[in-house]
């Protein structure tokens, strides 16, 4: 029963994907490329080789985490749009901890991880405080905090910790020893054990909502704040924690970026992971495991469309972004079939199969 | 000839049959009652007639022509209007704007503009509404804001709106649920006048007394079918109740044969319920006693519950001399503390304040009792214990269907209420606030709740029964206090009091009685 239900919930995003692909094919025709060829490049780009697969995974992992972060907010009926800022602050925190911390490998990593969690938590907590105690709207406050996070981290990174040997806007690198080594299977793609943090976070979150009072209460507050208040739950407190916890989860992205990928804080390293997390969370229906699947899809689409730019004549980077957006648009629709047609379809099914007992 | 004729209407949702075989005949210019327990299918049938739901089969005849109603738009075109249980008015706009909403009259000179850009031309609408108001005796201030109107006036606005679009058939879904007794009387006079002018009125309710008072004939629904239609003058409330539930019903009554303990469960002295009110509220409640709070809605009932439920929050803005619960000063207590000490509460609005409708019965059973030791193991919830408790609770209060994993919205209103009741008494509270405990609930559930209340009181539970149903208060209370203008205007002994005396005290007609308890 439950399995069948879960399977059913997959049909919608999948059929959305097919419809989206169909519309994309029309667009591709219009610019004068062959949809089949593009599909092939797309497929190869996403998972044609172990390296490509690794890069798809590379985009997937942060999306899982940002999707989870957004979902924690949404379950409490809060739109956490500040994830981008939270992961930026966390990345700088991780980099600084890595640079300053003890150069012992394990200690350094632990400290970096803790700093990332703390940085994300802090930035989420500010948002949570503004929402819960100062009645700021979390969307407005979240956007503003994103700007502030971007500004402050850039200023700090470039004025105080800038790498003098580099032309790029980045901090001094960590020592190589503390960086997490990549697995050889994915060739040079930066995939190591750190990617396991994402599914681990999903699993913990799943258990959190399933078994703990705090998780149950956060959802109750989101579903019916009035009833939650009558039940003696503090709405403000739960809202604060939903945003702060989201920030903490987003913070892991910062750790992964610094320790698993670049080894330093690069200004603007995130290709809007935080914002894509919103779509990931919604397509994944806020379920931790659904989010893993939807993040995988988004990650593959992102990687696949990047390659189109190099491999085709007419499909530019911008056009690849259009294709990516079309696919996401279709997937974010709650209903694909207009209600009228659906009703008729249901009626037809009833007539064909007869009334169920 | 019947103006409305339904034949063999059926509708099912998945495995749940909502209408099995509905047949209905309504003559023009009459008031017909639609009676049935919650879940008997009367709302579905009415929604089908209003085009909100498409039936799986059956025929709908209006004025002798068979019709297919695909949307409320079709129904409106045939002159069918529906008054919903919950008002559909925009609070921030005034009366006339609400009434013309959907067919805004605009200046003909501006007809070339898109509708949204045209200036409203309310003159014609105003004169037409003036006429309608005079004709039907429905006075409303057309320029008043909806948010400033009383519930009764809002209802008149809704009816005017139906008349304004020339509705000839009015479907009223539980129209009196939100009205005070006085407003009900007035409302019925208006309804009769409408019928006399040729409007056909269908009134859906499960209040037998009201049906007997207002209708010409009554159709009874049971288990998705129309059982029979009877002429009101040939029947009585007992017979209707029997037809409705299919068996005879014994009414529950407090026999005043239990001696109350001397132990006070609740002590309130000079509680300020409203800053502008001249007097403050004083009352006390012993263990093993039911104190009925009668009064017109809006005289401090909500504030009283608020003060008991969330003392620390409420008393931030209100004064009090003494507030004691089980002999402890609770002025700075939070909700959770009150609950842990033994305060149960059946909230006035179960959907808004009492339930998580999208969750199952188990998830709802823990709501408010999440800190109970038996339900917890450190930060974790012991769901197995909660499940067991839910099972027990559902059994003891006869909640059906007895499916623990069913989403709460799929239970009927009566069963939702029984589940809340089971939840609130499961942990053996010391004081139970029963705020409209049987509002919008079918007779079977009312009886069960009443019986349980009396049983629990015999076991020593103190019950604060706040209700707008005077019958309920009179039948159950050991003492009755009348709440008027945020203070206790008068108190009666439960056995020695009748509806008239209560009614007078409620409207403040008898001043100078004993104040407080």
Give a quick summary of the entry:
Chain A has helices at 2-31, 35-47, 50-75, 83-100, 105-132, 138-159, 197-211, 213-223, 225-230, 235-262, 273-283, 288-311, 317-332, 339-353. Chain A has 357 residues and is mostly helical. The mean pLDDT of chain A is 89.
Structure in words:
The complex is a heterodimer of chains A (357) and B (517). Chain A is built from 14 helices and no strands. By secondary structure, chain A is mostly helical. Chain A folds into 2 domains: 1-33 and 313-357, no CATH class; 56-301, Orthogonal Bundle (ABC transporter involved in vitamin B12 uptake, BtuC), CATH 1.10.3470. In chain A, helix 3 (50-75) packs across helix 12 (288-311). The longest helix of chain A has 30 residues, at 2-31. The two termini of chain A are 18 Å apart. Chain B has 517 residues and is of the alpha/beta class. Chain B folds into 4 domains: 1-79 and 168-249, 3-Layer(aba) Sandwich (Rossmann fold); 91-165, no CATH class; 263-342 and 431-438 and 462-517, P-loop containing nucleotide triphosphate hydrolases (Rossmann fold, 3-Layer(aba) Sandwich), CATH 3.40.50; 343-427, Rossmann fold (3-Layer(aba) Sandwich). Chain B is 33% helix and 24% strand. Chain B contains 18 helices and 22 strands. Chain B has helices spanning 42-49, 72-77, 95-100, 123-136, 151-164, 181-196, 208-214, 237-245, 301-309, 311-314, 335-341, 350-354, 361-365, 383-396, 413-426, 443-458, 470-476, 499-506; strands at 2-13, 16-27, 31-35, 57-62, 65-67, 80-83, 169-173, 200-205, 217-222, 225-231, 264-271, 281-286, 290-294, 322-325, 328-329, 343-346, 376-377, 380-381, 431-435, 462-466, 479-484, 487-493. In chain B, the strands form 5 sheets. Chain B has a 6-stranded mixed β-sheet with strand order 6-7-8-3-9-10, with helices on both faces. In chain B, a hairpin with a 2-residue loop joins strand 17 and strand 18. In chain B, helix 14 packs across helix 15 (413-426) and helix 15 runs parallel beside helix 16 (443-458). Chain B is globular and about 70 Å long. The model of chain B is unreliable at 510-517 (pLDDT under 50). At the A-B interface, helix 8 and helix 9 of A face helix 11, helix 12 and strand 18 of B.
